[in-house]
Amino acid sequence: MRAKLIWKENLQFAAEADGHTVLMDAKPPVGRGTAQTPKQLLLAALCGCTAMDVASLLRKQRQKVKSFEVTAEASIRTGNPAVFTAIDLSFRIEGAVDPALASEATRLSQTRFCAISAMLSRAVPIRYEVLVNGASAGRGEAQFA
Prior knowledge:
- With 145 residues, the chain is α+β, with helices and mostly antiparallel strands.
- It folds into two domains: 1-35; 38-141, GMP Synthetase, Chain A, domain 3 (2-Layer Sandwich), CATH 3.30.300.20.
- Helices cover 30% and strands 39% of the residues.
- The protein is built from three helices and seven strands.
- It has helices spanning 38-60, 99-113, 115-120, and strands at residues 4-9, 12-17, 20-24, 64-76, 84-96, 126-132, 135-141.
- Strands 4-5-6-7 form a four-stranded mixed beta sheet, covered by helices on one side.
- A hairpin with a 2-residue loop joins strand 2 and strand 3.
- The radius of gyration is 17 Å and the shape is globular.
- The two termini are 23 Å apart.
- The model has no long low-confidence stretch (mean pLDDT 97).
């Protein structure tokens, strides 16, 4: 795996990997706020990794997902470096989905499959909740061996 970072202007950078580009910038007054910050991209990567796991597992179980959203909210320590101190994930799934299967798919993602969660959970606790059609289907914490 390889990625490259290219300076564009001011504090805007373009990250390139396999022909795909993602912009990042710092917030004003340091940057211009024209793109997500590196910390925001890290949270987005976590959401993407675990969402792909859960969606794949639900598809294998022939669940009829109408909509699916994963939100990550991080607490950040003030000072330098301003690092994450906790991450809370919320999985919101709508459709003809068995809540027990959704909860189990999320548990598997957060204990066996999601590489981003496995790496981050070594530094910061990652908690999650699963909501299916607005009702709680489960909660837990990322725990990798």
